[in-house]
Design brief:
- By secondary structure, the protein is mainly alpha-helical.
- It is elongated, with a radius of gyration of 28 Å.
- The chain contains 11 helices and no strands.
- The longest helix has 33 residues.
- Helix 1 runs antiparallel to helix 2, helix 2 runs antiparallel to helix 4 and helix 7 packs antiparallel against helix 8.
- One of its GO terms (molecular function) is oxidoreductase activity.
């Protein structure tokens, strides 16, 4: 291949046999993806899984119609042609990434898949010269365009109001268990545990550069430690808390952010300007923690604020007293 030039075929250069082959492989891919979605969601979201089972069955029916047409016109041998071989087509997301998609993301991606399929068949039908091919491709374009209606019909059958509410509740619970709880624990640890070493260093040395380095080291070190601890503590299989890797990253990143929040002001050369700025940021961090607890953990805001601010104030005071002594 000449550098700088794509090896992908242009759609307008495809023969009708190749267009049919592309359509067949696309239907196979979409049916496989829908079945993977169904299996991924079956335990926690059985109603949505039933919807994807129905959509996969429709894709199978489309594929059979396309294969029959290809057999009638071109014989049994179907050329190997896939989306990634044709310019202007986006390859489907690798199926193993299904494990990393949430419920609403999966629903939105399915809708986008149907939109792309409808546009493909409409374009293919416009270029087809054979009447039977043009008719079938046009019918499939209409079918894909109406697939959203099919999904809505299946949703009405399987995803009634109570089922949808249950699934939304389960999705929110999983989000809280996988991201919010570990992230909140990290933010609390990073914000509170680094107060003492940072402010002790600040008041002991009154050197902003040294204080920043201590804060940076404490924040990054705590983030790495907390992240590995969270990932190693629970594989999520029995607890249902989700991927340990996701939880580990959420904890580690938020721990580091919590510590860096009041370490970064010490990039300011003037000691008291940096210290006052850091103190203001500390109180913003503590109130943010209280808000997250209230929003996602159903803790009364003022109780959460009292607990967090009291604990943070005690650690802050300890750092000042140790550094000032």
């Amino acid at each position: 291949m000449i550098p700088g030039f794509s090896s992908r075929r242009r759609f307008n250069d495809l023969s009708e046999q190749e267009v049919l082959a592309l359509a067949i492989s696309s239907e196979e891919d979409d049916a496989r993806i829908y079945r993977l979605y169904a299996e991924r969601l079956r335990t926690g979201y059985p109603a949505t899984a039933a919807i994807f089972d129905g959509m996969a069955a429709e894709e199978d029916d489309h594929r059979r119609q396309l294969i029959e047409l290809h057999r009638d016109r071109f014989g049994e041998v179907i050329p190997l042609l896939r989306r990634e071989h044709v310019a202007g087509f986006h390859a489907r997301r690798p199926v193993w990434l299904v494990e990393n998609l949430g419920l609403e993301t999966i629903r939105a991606q399915a809708a986008e898949m149907e939109r792309e399929a409808g546009a493909f068949y409409a374009r293919a039908a416009a270029n087809a010269r054979d009447a039977a091919t043009r008719t079938l491709l046009g019918d499939l374009a209409a079918a894909e365009a109406g697939h959203q209606n099919t999904a809505q019909t299946l949703a009405a059958e399987h995803l009634h109001h109570e089922a949808r509410a249950d699934e939304d509740h389960a999705a929110r619970r999983q989000f809280v268990l996988t991201y919010v709880q570990p992230g909140l624990a990290g933010l609390m640890d990073g914000s509170v545990s680094t107060l003492a070493p940072i402010f002790a260093t600040a008041f002991a040395t009154q050197d902003t550069h040294t204080t920043f380095l201590v804060g940076l080291a404490a924040s990054v070190g705590a983030g790495i430690s907390m992240g590995f601890t969270e990932a190693a503590s629970d594989d999520g299989q029995l607890s249902g808390r989700g991927s340990p890797v996701k939880r580990g990253f959420a904890t580690g990143i938020m721990t580091t952010i919590g510590g860096l929040g009041h370490a970064l002001p010490y990039l300011i050369p003037h000691f008291w300007t940096a210290t006052i700025t850091a103190i203001v940021i500390v109180f913003i961090e503590l109130w943010a923690i209280a808000w997250i607890q209230s929003r996602y953990m159903d803790t009364p805001f003022f109780r959460a604020a009292f607990q967090v601010v009291l604990g943070g104030s005690l650690v802050f005071a300890a750092g000042v007293l140790i550094g000032g002594g």
